[in-house]
């Protein structure tokens, strides 16, 4: 297939590689540079979010994405407690921490630790719980004669510390009320 595979790369493998394709009609060349990267973990370019929000009873994923080569090993703590995979908590291979069925007890400071053979680093964020958003009055099916008007309602309860936005869609496509103002009208009840 004209493929070159290398395993267990070292710094000695860095350099310019050339592929030569040849047949009875001629020969052609292509070049590519292989750079070998090695660095300790750093959160300088992608720190953890300082504040992470999770809905009560919901699921949250806290990302941990340091720059590192080779890929680091990850561990997590909540306060001073080291976290391990369990029924509600899972540490993913990419370093992310997943918590399901979030409760008030899950609130607190979470730290991601990343370590490879070049060094180690950590980053911390605070998880806060919010009340889950719920639809309290869903739109109902409506039969309307052609040419008449129809009104559909949607009411939701949400955490008072967060803003709430209603998005309407028709057959899976979001309605743009500015472009379609002659056909659709949004009435916001406070």
UniProtKB/TrEMBL annotation:
<dbReference type="GO" id="GO:0007156">
    <property type="term" value="P:homophilic cell adhesion via plasma membrane adhesion molecules"/>
</dbReference>
<dbReference type="GO" id="GO:0070593">
    <property type="term" value="P:dendrite self-avoidance"/>
</dbReference>
<dbReference type="GO" id="GO:0005886">
    <property type="term" value="C:plasma membrane"/>
</dbReference>
<protein>
    <submittedName>
        <fullName>CNTN1 protein</fullName>
    </submittedName>
</protein>
<dbReference type="GO" id="GO:0098632">
    <property type="term" value="F:cell-cell adhesion mediator activity"/>
</dbReference>
<dbReference type="GO" id="GO:0007411">
    <property type="term" value="P:axon guidance"/>
</dbReference>
<dbReference type="GO" id="GO:0030424">
    <property type="term" value="C:axon"/>
</dbReference>
<keyword id="KW-1015">Disulfide bond</keyword>
<keyword id="KW-0393">Immunoglobulin domain</keyword>
<keyword id="KW-0677">Repeat</keyword>
<dbReference type="InterPro" id="IPR007110">
    <property type="entry name" value="Ig-like_dom"/>
</dbReference>
<keyword id="KW-0472">Membrane</keyword>
<dbReference type="InterPro" id="IPR013783">
    <property type="entry name" value="Ig-like_fold"/>
</dbReference>
<dbReference type="InterPro" id="IPR036179">
    <property type="entry name" value="Ig-like_dom_sf"/>
</dbReference>
<keyword id="KW-0325">Glycoprotein</keyword>
<dbReference type="InterPro" id="IPR003599">
    <property type="entry name" value="Ig_sub"/>
</dbReference>
<dbReference type="Pfam" id="PF07679">
    <property type="entry name" value="I-set"/>
</dbReference>
<dbReference type="InterPro" id="IPR013098">
    <property type="entry name" value="Ig_I-set"/>
</dbReference>
<dbReference type="InterPro" id="IPR003598">
    <property type="entry name" value="Ig_sub2"/>
</dbReference>
<feature type="domain" description="Ig-like">
    <location>
        <begin position="41"/>
        <end position="128"/>
    </location>
</feature>
